[in-house]
Structure formats: C-alpha cells, structure tokens
C-alpha cells in the first residue's frame, strides 16, 4: 500500500464510544482471542495465491508457466497449463497434485476468506447504545433499565456474543481465462464481469456473454482446543462445473470429492502488563496454547468434456507425502472421431520428493513434464530446485512471521520467545531454480527475500542459457518501496484491557472507606499471539506485496552488437482521486514505463517513456458519517458498488457495583463504508527520445460514457507531435445510441445483449483535425435467441461513399450462411458438424451450392450413404467415396441456372442424372492416380444424382458463374489438411505427430514451405 493509500484508511469510518459502566472485574471482549480467519482449503488456496499476489513486475513474482494445450470451440478457447508461483513456500503449504509450488490451470475455483457472518447482510442503521448512567437497583442483564434503547442494546449484545456480525467475504475467481478479486459479487476494481450467487451456486459471465457455473463446493472448517476462542465460520471454495459460450457450445467439468484433516501448529497467546495503578500487577494474565486443525473437503478434477467431442481425462496415483491427496500422472487429450474417443496426446508428469520420510518432511516435487504422441515422448520440460536447504515438517515452528522457513530452533511461535525473523538463506528452500527445455537450453532463476513486512521471495535475476551452457540473455531486477517495515512485535501484538473496582491511589480496596465508594480502574494489557494480528480492515485495505518502482536491467550476449539497457516501471504515480476518499484500494497500476539503452559504463540514456494517467469518477455525494442519509446509498457511478459493515465490540463488561448500582456494558460501534471503484485511463503520453535533435511526444486523451456504465473509452483524442489532432469516437451496445439510425429491432437486440452481459462496439468514427475520414456501424438482431450481427456499413473515407456487408442467413449454430456485399455481391458458406468452415462460394446463394470431403454429410448439401465411405485411398482428409456403393444426390437448387459438378476421382467413371451435360474436362494425373474433373450441367429435375464407379473426393456443386473454394480437415479439430481454390489447385498441410504444421505441399506433393520450431531459450 502506498503512503497516499495509507493516509485514506482513517477517513473511512465514523466512530463513537458510548460510556456505560461488569461484576467487580471485567475484560475487553476480545481478551484472550487470536485474531484470524478460517483458511481456504489447501488445494484451492494454490489458485488463490494468484489473486492475492499476482504475477507482476510490481510484486516481484515472475510468470513461470508451461502450456499443455487447449480445447478449442468456435470463438472460445480453453487453455491448459501448469504454473509456478515463485513467491516462496510457506512451511505449512501442502504440495498440490502437480507438486510443491505448481498449480494445474485447467478448471476454475472461487476461493474466499470468510471474515464473519458473510451471508446475513449488513445492518443498515446506527444502534443507539447510550446507557442510562449508573442504574441503581438494576442488574446487568436488565437492558430496559440500563439503556436508552434496550432493543438496540440487546440486539448488539446478541450479535457480539454469537459472533454473527456481518463482514463481507473477500473472494477470488481463478480460471485459465479470467482472474478477479471480488466482494459482494463486484470485482475489484470494477469490470464488466457479472457475478451472481443463488442457491449455493455461483454464476459468472464475462463481457462476451460466456457463462461460467460454479456448482460444486469444498470446505475448510477450522477446529481448535481454545475454550474462549471464536471458531470462524467454514470457508467454502466453489469449483467450476460448466462453461457455456455465448454461441451455444459448452465445456463440462467432472470431479470426485476427497476429505482429510490437516493439522497445523499450535496457537499460542501470552499477555503482559502495559501500564496502570499498583494493583494492576495482580491482573490475572492469560497464557494459552491450543491445538488447531482443518477439516478439509476438496474436489479432484477427473474430466473436462467439450461439446465438439474434445475431452481431457486426468489420471492420478497415490503419493508418499499425503494419504489422501494424490499426484497427477497423466492428462489425456482425446478427440471424438466417428463416435469414438481417439487419443491425441498424453501429458506425462514425473515426480520425486523434497525431504525424506525419516525426517517427516516429504513434499511432492515435479521433476519433468513430457508430451507423449503416438507412443513416443516429445517436448520434455525438466525442472531443477534448490535442494541445499530442506523444508522442515509441515507443522514445524521454524517459521518467520508470515510462515516461511527461517531455520530457527523455536520451541514457541511467540516472537518474545522464539525467532520469527525471516532468513534470506532458509526461505529459498525447495525453490525452482531452472527449467530445461526440449532443446536442452534452460532458464535459470535467482531470488532474493522481500522486506520484513511481506517476507517471501522476489525475483532477482533470470538468465537464459544455450544447451552448451553459453549465456544468452540476462535480466536483473531492483526494487523500491515507500512502505516501511515495523518492528517484528508490531505484527503480533494487540492491546487489551482489564477493569476492576478499587480505591485511589493504588487501586486496592480500602474497606475502611466502604465498598460503595470504589472507583473503576483500567489496566492496559498487551496480548502477544503466535499468528500475525489480523486488523479489522486488513482484508479489505491490504493489497499485499506492492513495489512502487522496479528496474529491469537486460543484457543480451547472443550477438556482439546486441542492445542492452533497462526498463523502469513505476506504479500509482499518476492517479487522480477527484476528492474520493471511500475508495477500496486496488492492486497497483503501472503509470510510468521508461526504456533506456546503455550509453556507457553504468550509464543509461532514455529512448522512450510512457506515462499513463488514471482517474476515478467524481462523486460529490460521498460521505463517511452514518448520520448522513447519503452514507446508506450507493455511488453515483452505475458501474461502481459500495458495501457497508459494522464493527461491534464490548469494550468493558458490565460491573455490579457494591454501592447498589450497575455499571452497564460499554460498547464500541463503528460503521464502515467502502466503494469498489472503477478506474479509468485518462491520458497516455508517449515520449520518444530516439532522435537527439528532436523530441517526439504523442498524447492520447480518453473520455467515457460513465452515466451509461461503459468502462471502455468512448472518445480518444490523439495529439501528434506535429500538431495533428485525431479523434476516435466509439459507441457500444450499452451506450446511448440516439441519433445513429438504429431500428427498434436493433435497439432491442442491443439491450438483450446488455442483459446477457455481452458487450461490443456498434459504431465508430475517426476524424482528422475535425474532418471525418472513416466510419463504420454494426447492426444486430435476435436470431435463434442470440444477438447476432446482421449488417456492417463502412464509409472508408468518412464521406457519403459507403460499403456494406449484410448477413442474410445463419444456421442453427449461429454461423453465417449467406452474405451480401454492397447490396449485390453474394457469398455463401458451408460448415461441417464440428462447426468448421469447409466451403466458400462467391456470387452464389446458399441453396445453390454443395461441397463434401466425405468427413461428414452434415451441412454439405449432398446426400449419400455411409456405406460408400472409403478410407484406404483418398485425395484429402483421409476419406473418399466409392461410387459403386450408391449415388450422391443434391436438391433444393434453382433449376433455371447452369451448374458445375467438380471434384477429384481415381479409376472412376462419373455419370450425371437429372441434368443435361453441357461439357466436361479431366486433368492429367495429379498425384497417385487422382485427377481433377469438371462437368457443366443444366438441371432437368429437382434432384441431381451423381453415380458411376471408382473413387471420388472433394465433390463440388455450384453455379457456373460462381467461384468455390474448399477446406478439408484431418480427424482433429481445426487441423486443416487441404485447401483447394476455385480452379481446383490444392495445397496440402502436413503435421508432425504432436500437431505442429510441418510442411505445405502443392497438388503434386511438391514442397512449398517447411516449418522448423525452436523452444526457448
């Protein structure tokens, strides 16, 4: 948190204490309690780390990830990878199914920190907790006699006693396609992602209308032996069970539930006297040690199934470091071919262990990831770690203040007894030090510790080496922060009080003076605990590791004339708060990026600087006092959201005074309000220093339609160095579209898309010095329940000359079948059952053309018997058709037109019935006896049949004045095998066993192009 952010913390709430005067002694209501919360279940917590400490220059955590493949749907891709979080290992961290530090990014999880009763809702009022003074003849539980508003006082007392105070949970969404922190279903900062929770199910929609359903949950329930300690509510994590794309495809996720108990280190508290009168030395201080554990229920991913037949299965086996959690051995990629699952590739994991069973410190270690295709191992990634230092047992006390290994032989976790300081040496235990790639080159990682207030590790150096250990490149990092570390006891101590009755001056009872004349004395106590104190506001205000300035030095040794220099990243330097003071802090924002080249020994010259200025929208209604009505309302910005919660404490219990009256409980009441902000890029200034004689500066100014809730810029003014002003104006489907000529049907479609959380630009205009030079506009309608574009109009020069493309027809899968360009040029498309584009026919109606490569008949326009499919010999895509098995027919066309029947045949005689043949041609041998043929025909019947003998492939039917281009595919999704142009010339695509494009060949199988692949470094 920057210094400017810290200064805001104390302005967010209105505090009032109420005087009221517990038995002859009393304690603060939090006396003897360890401030903490229920942790997320260990496996789900691995996902949460990426939300709490993102991969970023600002956090010092490098992006270490190994891609494993993806599931591809139309307009949507689901990537898979394993990623390594290099922030350091806490001693209590349980290794995931892919090894310590690694997380499989394949499904999705919503994790959270349950901070209180997160479901009952906030208390939208200020309690009247004023008492009636010292009440004679009363008793402590007589709220009617003791308080001005007994209903409020009794309700507040109940909430405190039963720990049912509302505090919204801080949650994180982590999937391969999105990552958000959110509170009360609003992302932090505000985004177009829509979150809802109903009936124990989370539904999340991204800005493209894709829906993510989280319908399975795991839990972590904390248990402890502390008799006086509040047991936090269970912490639930929700697992992704289904993704529905906006265009109707889907992915489902299957799991199995596992349960186990996770034992943690004991919780310890120790109290010491602060200050007070002499009798305070007799204060009954409490020292406690109590065991704790988590009862964990988690979901183990078993299968991912896509609607287009792609499937992933996950195979596990037992491991030596945990009896219940297994290790992931294989990820099998399948595709469905002719109704059967065919193995495409296997991702195999190999493991070892850190530590030894003898020392009770085993932890699963990922050593190698291999891709296995057609039974042969390919693309091996191997990993090296720091094994010079071993992590201790999971419940070891040898930990620093944040739980990282420090090597100290602690008998207690209390800082006054044990050593909780970080150790720069021990914190590096078991850290990833190198990745060796398939080329045998490698990347080497060097770390250094973060400052005390964060602990853990940050990246210090990244080096890339050739296979022969020649150093190619090196990046070094230096960090600066304005946050000052406090003494270590600061993080573990909190103030408490002890109250009693006595006489002045020393607090002892003077029986001669009479018991009724006793006064109230307060002793200050300091409670030290073995876990860091969780400040009431920390979960909301603390953004974790956040460096203000990071310098990245780069040295390139690959060539003698390589460029060396550095890039300086600065954060949060250009933010306009516009008087806002209730804003919830967000992760640091990059505001300055300056690139330098080396100009001498230890000297650098700037060549480019980027300054990003951000702003928050103005809100004059923002107030911090709960006595002002605006405190209980939301922000003016419709995209922003606010949340409120109340802190209630009994600062002193009720005391029965011997003088015949009671001193009622004293309450503390604090009302908090925070606004989850929308952050807008306001100005971008790019300064080019590369030409010493001329400074080049370009500026962009951004404006927004805030009242409509549009987060993207609606106007961008660009001022070039030469003074030229360029203006780009953009409207979205949720903008104010008045005056743009949209019909009621268009507006209704745009509104439906908005309701479905599907946002897109609808209109754009570019002006140069005030003159329009380009304009385009999108029209949409509701087709088959989906909002789809039906026309785009473009004015390429900004004047009256207009070009247009209209989509006249869609299929049931929301793919365009019939297009019309400029009101006269037609184009038609055909698709296969896997939604792949297989043919484009120019100057053609959809009903008047057909194409099949015999992979499937769906959508081809032809009808034929499956018994004629022939897989022994073919021209393309592994399937041909034997005409001797039956005729191929086509119908539904315009009989007034002349058509072409064309394709490739081998040893064939092709005959046409239902049409008069007007002419034909046959090519010479193309390859392996296959020849290209064409027949011009005039229909005489509504159905044309194509018969004969021999083999036929890539069959076409189209009007004689049209042009048809076709695409054929291999068994696997989107793997193009042949592209054939309108003249019958084909280009063949050949792949390696693992799916990489290897060669392009012409129709005679001559090599046109060869592709070679090289892995970093």
Using the CA coordinates, give the radius of gyration. 35 Å
The termini sit apart by 36 Å
By DSSP, the count of extended strands is 61
Average pLDDT score: 89
Q: Roughly how much helix do the residues carry, as a percent range?
A: under 10%
| Major sheet | 43 strands, mixed
Assess the beta-strand content as a share of residues.
over 45%
State the low-pLDDT regions, or none.
1-24, 26-38
Number of helices: 6
Describe this structure in words.
- The protein has a 43-stranded mixed beta sheet that branches. Strands 48, 49, 50, 51, 52, 53, 54, 55 and 56 form a nine-stranded antiparallel beta sheet that branches.
- The chain has a domain at 725-964.
- The chain is elongated.
- It is built from six helices and 61 strands.
- With 1017 residues, it is mainly β.
- β59 and β60 form a beta hairpin.
- The two termini are 36 Å apart.
Write a short abstract of this structure.
The chain is mostly beta strands. 5% of the residues lie in helices and 48% in strands.
Write a concise keyword list for the protein shown above:
5% helix; 1017 residues; mainly beta; disordered N terminus; 43-stranded mixed β-sheet; 9-stranded antiparallel β-sheet; 61 strands
Topology:
Elements (H helix, E strand, L loop, with lengths): L2 H4 L6 E5 L7 E3 L14 H11 L11 E10 L2 E9 L17 E4 L3 E5 L21 E2 L6 H4 L3 H12 L8 E5 L4 E5 L2 E3 L5 E5 L2 E5 L5 E14 L10 E10 L5 E24 L14 E19 L4 E7 L9 E11 L2 E15 L8 E11 L2 E10 L46 E5 L5 E8 L7 E9 L5 E10 L12 E10 L16 E11 L8 H4 L7 E8 L8 E7 L3 E2 L13 E11 L2 E14 L24 E12 L2 E3 L3 E3 L2 E11 L2 E10 L7 E8 L11 E5 L5 E8 L11 H12 L5 E8 L2 E13 L2 E10 L7 E8 L5 E6 L3 E7 L5 E6 L7 E3 L9 E2 L5 E2 L9 E3 L5 E4 L7 E15 L1 E8 L8 E9 L3 E17 L3 E7 L6 E5 L5 E6 L5 E5 L5 E4 L7
Parallel strand pairs: 30-32
Antiparallel strand pairs: 1-36, 2-26, 3-4, 4-5, 6-8, 6-14, 7-35, 8-9, 9-10, 11-12, 12-13, 13-14, 13-16, 14-15, 15-16, 15-27, 16-17, 17-18, 18-19, 19-20, 20-21, 21-22, 22-23, 23-24, 24-25, 25-28, 26-27, 28-29, 29-31, 31-32, 32-37, 33-36, 34-35, 37-38, 38-39, 39-40, 40-41, 41-42, 42-43, 43-44, ...
């Amino acid at each position: 948190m920057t210094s400017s952010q810290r200064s805001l913390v104390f302005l967010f709430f209105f505090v009032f204490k109420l005087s009221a005067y517990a038995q002859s002694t009393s304690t603060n209501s939090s006396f003897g309690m360890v401030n903490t919360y229920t942790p997320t279940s260990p496996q789900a917590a691995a996902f949460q780390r990426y939300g709490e400490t993102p991969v970023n220059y600002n956090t010092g955590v490098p992006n270490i990830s190994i891609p494993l493949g993806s599931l591809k749907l139309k307009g949507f891709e689901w990537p898979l990878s394993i990623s390594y979080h290099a922030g350091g290992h806490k001693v209590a961290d349980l290794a995931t199914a892919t090894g310590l530090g690694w997380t499989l990014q394949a499904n999705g999880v919503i994790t959270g920190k349950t901070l209180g009763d997160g479901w009952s809702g906030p208390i939208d009022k200020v309690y009247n907790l004023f008492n009636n003074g010292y009440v004679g003849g009363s008793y402590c539980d007589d709220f009617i006699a003791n308080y001005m508003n007994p209903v409020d006082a009794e309700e507040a007392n109940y909430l405190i006693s039963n720990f049912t105070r509302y505090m919204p949970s801080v949650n994180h969404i982590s999937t391969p396609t999105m990552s958000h922190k959110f509170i009360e279903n609003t992302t932090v900062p505000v985004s177009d992602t829509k979150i809802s929770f109903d009936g124990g199910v989370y539904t999340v929609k991204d800005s493209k209308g894709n829906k993510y359903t989280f319908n399975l949950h795991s839990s972590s329930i904390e248990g402890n032996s502390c008799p006086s300690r509040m047991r936090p509510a269970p912490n639930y994590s929700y697992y992704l069970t289904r993704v529905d794309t906006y265009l109707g495809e889907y992915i489902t996720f299957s799991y199995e539930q596992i349960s186990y108990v996770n034992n943690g280190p004991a919780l310890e508290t120790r109290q010491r006297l602060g200050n007070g009168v002499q009798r305070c030395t007799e204060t009954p201080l409490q020292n406690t040690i109590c065991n704790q554990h988590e009862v964990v229920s988690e979901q183990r991913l078993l299968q991912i199934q896509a609607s287009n037949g792609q499937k992933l299965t996950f195979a596990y086996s037992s491991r030596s470091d945990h009896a219940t959690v297994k290790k992931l051995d294989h990820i099998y990629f399948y595709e469905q071919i002719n109704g059967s699952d065919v193995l495409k590739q296997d991702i195999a994991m190999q493991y070892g262990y850190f530590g030894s069973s003898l020392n009770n410190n085993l932890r699963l270690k990922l050593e190698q990831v291999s891709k296995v295709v057609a039974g042969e191992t390919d693309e091996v990634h191997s990993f090296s770690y720091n094994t010079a230092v071993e992590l201790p047992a999971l419940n070891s006390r040898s930990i620093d203040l944040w739980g990282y290994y420090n090597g100290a032989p602690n008998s207690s976790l209390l800082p006054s007894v044990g050593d909780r300081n970080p150790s720069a040496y021990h914190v590096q235990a078991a850290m990833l030090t190198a990745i060796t790639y398939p080329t045998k080159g490698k990347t080497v990682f060097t770390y250094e510790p973060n400052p005390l207030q964060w602990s853990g590790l940050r990246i210090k150096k990244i080096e890339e080496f050739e296979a022969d250990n020649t150093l190619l490149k090196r990046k070094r990092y230096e960090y600066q922060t304005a946050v000052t570390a406090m003494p270590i006891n600061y993080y573990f101590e909190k103030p408490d009080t002890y109250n009693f009755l006595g006489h002045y001056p020393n607090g002892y009872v003077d029986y001669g003076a009479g018991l009724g004349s006793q006064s109230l004395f307060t002793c200050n106590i300091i409670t030290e605990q073995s876990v860091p104190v969780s400040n009431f506001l920390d979960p909301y205000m603390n953004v974790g590791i956040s460096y203000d300035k990071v310098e990245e030095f780069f040295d390139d040794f690959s060539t003698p004339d390589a460029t060396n220099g550095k890039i300086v990243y600065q954060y949060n330097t250009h933010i306009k708060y516009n008087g806002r003071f209730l804003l919830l802090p967000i992760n640091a924002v990059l505001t300055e990026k300056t690139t330098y080249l080396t100009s001498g020994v230890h000297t650098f010259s700037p060549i480019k600087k980027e300054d990003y200025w951000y702003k928050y929208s103005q809100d004059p209604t923002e107030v911090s006092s709960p006595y002002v009505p605006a405190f209980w309302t939301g922000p003016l910005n419709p995209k922003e959201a606010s949340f409120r919660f109340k802190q209630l404490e009994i600062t002193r219990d009720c005391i029965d005074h011997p003088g015949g009256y009671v001193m009622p409980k004293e309450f503390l009441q604090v009302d908090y309000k925070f606004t989850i902000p929308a952050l807008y890029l306001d100005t971008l200034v790019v300064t080019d220093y590369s030409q010493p004689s001329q400074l080049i500066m370009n500026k962009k100014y951004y404006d927004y339609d805030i009242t409509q809730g549009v987060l993207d810029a609606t106007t961008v003014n660009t001022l070039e160095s030469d003074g030229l002003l360029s203006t780009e104006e953009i409207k979205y489907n949720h903008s104010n579209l008045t005056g743009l000529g949209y019909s009621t049907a268009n507006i209704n479609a745009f509104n439906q898309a908005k309701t479905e959380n599907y946002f897109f630009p609808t209109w754009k205009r570019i002006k140069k010095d005030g003159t329009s030079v380009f304009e385009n506009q999108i029209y949409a309608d509701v087709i088959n329940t989906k909002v789809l574009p039906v026309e785009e109009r473009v004015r390429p020069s900004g004047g009256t000359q207009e070009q247009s493309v209209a989509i006249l027809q869609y299929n049931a899968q929301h793919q365009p079948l019939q297009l019309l360009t400029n009101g006269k040029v037609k184009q038609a498309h055909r698709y296969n059952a896997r939604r792949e584009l297989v043919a484009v026919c120019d100057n053609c109606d959809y009903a008047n053309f057909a194409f099949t490569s015999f992979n499937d008949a769906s959508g081809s326009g032809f009808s034929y018997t499956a018994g004629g499919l022939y897989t022994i010999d073919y021209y393309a895509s592994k399937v041909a058709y034997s005409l001797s098995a039956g005729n191929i027919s086509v119908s539904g066309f315009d009989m007034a037109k002349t058509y072409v029947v064309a394709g490739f045949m081998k040893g064939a005689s092709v005959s046409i019935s239902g049409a008069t043949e007007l002419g034909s041609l046959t090519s010479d041998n193309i390859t392996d006896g296959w020849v290209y043929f064409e027949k011009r025909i005039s229909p005489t019947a509504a159905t044309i049949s194509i018969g004969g003998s021999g083999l036929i492939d890539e069959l076409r039917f189209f009007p004689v004045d049209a042009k048809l281009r076709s695409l054929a595919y291999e068994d696997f999704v989107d793997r193009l095998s042949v592209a054939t142009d309108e003249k019958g010339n084909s280009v063949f695509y050949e792949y390696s066993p693992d799916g990489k494009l290897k060669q392009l060949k012409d129709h005679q199988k001559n090599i046109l192009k060869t592709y070679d692949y090289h892995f970093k470094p």
